[in-house]
Write a structure and sequence with these properties.
The complex is a heterodimer of chains A (334) and B (441). Helix content of chain A is 68%, strand content 2%. Chain A has 334 residues and is an all-alpha fold. Chain A has one domain: ABC transporter involved in vitamin B12 uptake, BtuC. Chain B has 2 domains: 349 residues, ABC transporter involved in vitamin B12 uptake, BtuC (Orthogonal Bundle), CATH 1.10.3470; 73 residues. Chain B is built from 18 helices and no strands. The longest helix of chain B is centred in the C-terminal third of the chain and has 37 residues. Chain B is globular. Classes of the chains: A mainly alpha (334), B mainly alpha (441). Chains A and B meet through helix 4, helix 5, helix 10 and helix 13 of A and helix 7, helix 9, helix 16 and helix 18 of B. Chain B: This is Branched-chain amino acid ABC transporter permease. Chain B: It is found in: Cell inner membrane. Chain B: It comes from Vreelandella andesensis. Chain B: GO terms for molecular function: branched-chain amino acid transmembrane transporter activity.
Chain lengths: 334, 441
């Protein structure tokens, strides 16, 4: 039983945490892909920027959260979402719109977004330094230990305060996005444009508005993902290259241009990562006595070491590109 | 895909067609300015430093030539130059470093070989299992069987490998090199990079062009992670140095002369690569590659095997990157996996290519040398500007500057590189020396 608790702590909870973060990031990537038809490489840095805004605001007003009883970083999150959304729209106006107006190939947009990545990285590091910082400036990170009411179970299930917030916020964000895309006029226009931009324009949809709305949503979601990730661990300015691959893998696994697919893809990639670095020997230990004597289990039965975690999303990406390039849910853009 | 075929390539307008024998004024002016810059660096920084800079610029020029045939000739964007450079550097290290007797004198090489044989056998078994449906096994059952067998065998092999490598690490440090001349490592590094490029290209080149960028970005980080964490193979963060040069080293004949000899070796390599690329570009093959870049559908209609041609050129570019990476690694005389950074080895090369002129070999070489000089000189400049800013802030506002200002100042260069990429794409998409498009008739 203790082994099972260990499994829950290290795979179920950890996998849901990374899965939620990848899912929120991948939604933004997939929306941009479906409206503007290019892979937005600067997305992970927009996430970092959102987290950095939260860090700045929290450092400026560290005591706000204590009066309401939530961490200050969470109080500052909506403000950071606004700022990040504004940044995303501004980047589009300054860098991507002129390129679009020239009618360049999508791959040139990709290179442009890499340029934006470097600019954001440079700016963030210039102002924050290169080290890691905690978003809990004045507050304390609560850790809940839930003891299970079974006999012989000594290890508790461990879950931290930011992880609970993370699950709640992910759920709220996903439901809100679902309602927006299916119920609101703008959301329907967005889906129409992702299906067929010319037809959407011909039927009187203002494509400029849709592009701006896409950036607002993508920016706000990126701020959420970046902040939640930094709450769970720490804020680091150089996260982006390690986030990009899993997020793109998640978007492609779910089928590019498919927001629900991106959510599923995020959890697939998140769980695959945690399952791959989990030491399976722990689960087999209770059965050690019943195993035949010639079979001696090595002490480390993980598929990959934690240092090779990045291999997992890459492997998933290659596998999906080889066997099903449209993704699990048949994305529209190949 | 629908996008690229619908719009005609905007870079191509008939006005671009230049008469064949034009006086190369632009080339002369640009290269003259470059020569003046190099001479200025020689005058200010001294011969040894400047020659080092030139050798590194020459190695970067080989990388840039690799990228210019991928991006300029064929329109494929490789976002993981760093990975191929690191592979080249690794091979240069592995082949040139002296033989480690603490490893080869024991039974460890046999053990390692045994594990590698097990790995090959396991791969064969799994491949065999995927062919089971030819013997009447239902397809679903075959897939399940193949996956189960694959997972179990993988776990067996990887735990055996972990045992052996940790033994190597504790008993011998690392496996050492082969003690061969460095150029063997360069050639093998090129071949290895080409092999990795073949794998990636094979998966991605039939799909949207963005996927290639994502996959190359990923493979670069994986190669770096592998080299950084395989202490038994590369000593990881402990780094390997010195790497022997194929030419007389600085200890024998002094810094300037030895670097000058190394520079002539790189110059010969560049000249050979340049000549071959020039011939290939003007050959029917080069025309076919450009036709595929500019209009995929019409080339396919003419019966060209688009994916195969793309794979060819992608692998060729990767080989050049591996070769350049090997030469760069040997010249630095240090193999440090952590020293491979996306900024220095991917984006700097990208800037060289798009600024110099994608698809124009001469422009690419100009871009490589010019950007590298700016890059090297920007480091003291950034530090100086930051000190100025700090002094100004302290003097006027009484601002208390954090003490890690120097590392932050260097980050400003990241910003500049990013800005350069976006600005060049916006205002000079064809680079300083644009590709010359010949028209016939």
């Amino acid at each position: 039983m203790n082994e099972l608790v260990f499994f829950i702590n290290n795979v179920v909870i950890a996998g849901s945490v990374t899965g939620s973060i990848y899912a929120i990031g991948a939604i933004g990537v997939t929306l941009i892909f479906s409206i503007m038809r290019f892979a937005h490489f600067a997305h992970a840095d927009i996430m970092t920027f959102g987290a950095f805004m939260v860090l700045l605001l929290t450092t400026a007003f560290p005591a706000v959260g204590a009066s309401i009883g939530v961490p200050t970083a969470l109080v500052m999150l909506p403000l950071a979402m606004l700022l990040t959304a504004a940044l995303a729209v501004g980047i589009d106006k300054a860098f991507y719109k002129p390129l679009r107006a020239h009618g360049v190939k999508p791959i040139v947009m990709v290179i442009g977004s890499l340029g934006v990545t470097l600019m954001l990285q440079g700016l963030i590091r210039l102002f924050s330094g290169t080290g890691g910082q905690s978003l809990y400036v004045d507050d304390r990170k609560e850790i809940f230990r839930i003891a299970l009411p079974f006999e012989g179970v000594r290890a508790p299930i461990v879950i931290t305060e930011p992880q609970i917030y993370l699950f709640v916020i992910t759920l709220v964000a996903v439901v809100a996005l679902h309602l927006f895309l299916n119920r609101s006029r703008l959301g329907k226009a967005m889906r129409a444009m992702s299906d067929n931009p010319e037809l959407a324009q011909a039927s009187g949809i203002n494509t400029n508005t849709i592009v701006a709305v896409t950036w607002v949503i993508a920016g706000a979601l990126a701020a959420i993902a970046g902040t939640l990730l930094s709450l769970d661990v720490t804020f680091k300015p150089d996260l982006s290259f390690f986030l990009l691959l899993p997020i793109f893998a998640a978007a492609i696994v779910g089928g590019v241009g498919h927001p629900y697919g991106a959510i599923a893809g995020g959890f697939v990639v998140g769980f695959a990562e945690t399952l791959a670095v989990f030491n399976w020997n722990v689960l087999l230990r209770p059965f050690r006595d019943s195993l035949p004597t010639w079979l001696e289990l090595p002490s480390n039965l993980a598929f990959v070491g934690t240092e090779y975690k990045i291999v997992v999303p890459f492997f998933i990406l290659v596998a999906i590109l080889v066997w099903r390039p449209t993704g699990l849910f048949k994305g529209k853009v190949i | 895909m629908s996008h690229s075929t619908k719009n005609r390539n905007p870079d191509y307008t008939p006005n671009d067609a230049t008469p064949e024998r034009r006086f190369p004024l632009r080339e002369l002016v640009l290269f003259g300015a470059l020569l003046a810059a190099v001479l200025a660096v020689y005058a200010i920084m001294g011969a040894a430093y400047s020659t080092r800079m030139l050798v590194e610029a020459a190695c970067y020029a080989i990388l840039a030539l690799g990228l210019t045939i991928q991006w300029g000739y064929a329109g494929q964007f490789n976002a993981g130059v760093m990975g191929f450079v690191a592979l080249g550097g690794f091979c240069a290290m592995l082949f040139s470093v002296p033989v480690n007797d603490a490893f080869w004198g024991t039974e460890l090489p046999g053990e390692l070989g045994k594990v590698l044989l097990y790995g090959i056998a396991a791969t064969l078994i799994v491949v065999g299992a995927t062919k089971l449906d030819r013997f009447g096994v239902p397809k679903k059952l075959r897939t399940v069987l193949a996956i189960v067998i694959g997972v179990v065998l993988y776990l067996v092999v990887i735990s055996l490998l972990r045992d052996v490598t940790s033994q190597i690490q504790s008993q011998a440090g690392f496996i050492g090199g082969f003690g061969l001349p460095a150029w063997v490592g360069w050639v093998v590094g090129g071949a290895l990079a080409g092999g990795v490029g073949y794998f990636i290209g094979h998966v991605c080149l039939g799909l949207r062009s963005d996927y290639l960028a994502i996959a190359t970005l990923g493979i670069a980080e994986i190669i770096k992670a592998f080299l950084k964490n395989s202490d038994w193979l590369t000593r990881g963060t402990a780094t390997v140095s010195p790497l022997p040069w194929p030419t007389p080293g600085p200890a024998d004949i002094g810094f300037t002369l030895s670097r000058a000899i190394y520079l002539s070796v790189t110059a010969v390599v560049i000249a050979v690569v340049f000549f071959l690329l020039h011939r290939a570009y003007h050959a029917p093959w080069g025309r076919m590659i450009r036709a595929i870049r500019d209009n995929e559908v019409s080339s396919a209609a003419m019966g060209k095997d688009i994916n195969k041609r793309r794979l060819e050129i992608f692998v060729l570019g990767c080989i050049l990157m591996g070769l350049g990476g090997g030469m760069l690694g040997t010249f630095n005389s240090l193999f440090d996996p952590q020293g491979y950074l996306p900024l220095n080895h991917t984006f700097l090369v990208l800037v060289m290519v798009i600024l110099g002129g994608p698809g124009n070999n001469l422009g690419t070489i100009f871009g490589a040398v010019a950007v590298y000089i700016i890059w090297i000189m920007s480091e003291p400049l950034a530090l100086f500007l930051m000190q100025l800013a700090v002094a100004f802030g302290e003097g006027v506002f009484g601002w208390d500057a954090p003490n890690n200002m120097d590392s932050r100042a260097l980050q400003a260069r990241v910003l500049v590189i990013g800005m350069l990429i976006t600005l060049v794409l916006r205002f000079a998409p064809k680079g300083l020396l644009p590709e010359k498009i010949k028209t016939h008739g």
